[in-house]
Write a structure and sequence with these properties.
Two copies of one chain form a homodimer. Chain A is α/β, with parallel strands linked by helices. Chain A has helices at 2-5, 11-22, 38-47, 63-76, 79-82, 95-98, 126-139, 157-169; strands at 28-31, 55-59, 85-88, 105-112, 140-150, 176-183, 191-197. Strand 6 of chain A pairs antiparallel with strand 6 of chain B. Chains A, B: It comes from Ziziphus jujuba (Chinese jujube).
């Protein structure tokens, strides 16, 4: 975290460090935007152990993203571990529909923007992001975290950030800590938002 | 730092933790807004050792603030340590004028707003804050930090934050990391801004 302030870490690295402080072996977590699967893999490594209880539910509306994520997992973990990841070619606003009933979700991670290396005209949209956050808020367990890395350099990126901020403003301070971390002299740098559901 | 995201620490506590990672014994540091002296005291404890080389230069435009800071130091440290603090009843925009020539300054701390418990009509002003930041930028050593805790709940608070942000936007990314940390669902919570001058 301090490394970020001192310019030695990237936003995604900071996000991973914070996830590591929250996520435990055997947890259920959600990668709301699989992209090329780097977050999915990082999350899997945090929840996987010999108990086989850990689960990573991954979502993306782009088939190519899920294929990339699946390939990355294939070459990075053993088949038993890969089994702990459930990938869905669906919008993250539908995440509650595929989860087993009464699942306690420790972390829900969003990467908002377009697929790196993919079709830049396909971006996450403010409307479905707002819907997904509303769902995420409900299914997250107390002591859990919603983590957002918001890219703002593409058309619609700023509006999506505003949608996230508006969502945060309404979260009651008694139950939520909503922290936004931003690089002021790098206008296109991703913005970090962490929503912690108090115990 | 993580404690802040999880709602367990106050903004000023986070600032102190970050200062501790930067400031070394024997350093020269500046408390640009002494207030009641709590930051001055914290800084003194970070720089003071038996070498007697450490210095804290403190500024405030309110005499009562300097009296309070002086009293706090009186009861908190021994006279030798207190000697390492130099308090000035001057605006922080004049900080360079009282420093010995060629002083390397490791940290410059600002608390923007009004004096807690004091006259709420006396607040730091955007114009002198901008001037002070321009001076601070020059006298800070590479590897040093400008730390700002910006209170926004009083009239003019938001404008002052904008002044700080405008100042940050112009700092070249090659030489500066400018990180803003904000609680999104606590509109009146102080905002943290850390400007790290790269080595």
């Amino acid at each position: 975290m301090l490394s970020y302030i001192f310019g030695n870490k990237k936003a995604t690295e900071v996000a991973h460090l914070i996830w590591e402080r929250i996520v435990r072996k055997g947890d259920t977590v959600i990668d709301a935007t699989c992209g090329n699967g780097y977050d999915t893999l990082a999350l899997l490594r945090m929840v996987a152990d010999e108990s086989g209880l850990g689960r990573v539910y991954g979502f993306d509306v782009q088939k190519v993203a899920l294929e990339n994520a699946s390939s990355l997992l294939e070459v990075s973990v053993n088949p038993n571990e890969k089994e702990l990841v459930k990938l869905f070619h669906r919008c993250h606003s539908e995440m509650a529909e595929v989860l087993p009933e009464d699942t306690s979700v420790r972390l829900i991670a969003f990467n908002l923007g377009y697929l790196p290396g993919g079709d830049k005209s396909v971006v996450t949209e403010s409307q479905t992001t707002a819907e997904a956050l509303t769902v995420a808020k409900e299914i997250l367990m107390p002591g859990g975290l919603i983590s957002l890395v918001v890219y703002v350099g593409h058309p619609g990126g700023r509006e999506e950030l505003e949608t996230v901020e508006e969502f945060c403003w309404k979260l009651p301070v008694e139950n939520w800590t909503c922290c936004k971390i931003q690089m002021l002299n790098r206008q296109l740098a991703p913005i970090l938002v962490f929503l912690f559901k108090k115990c």
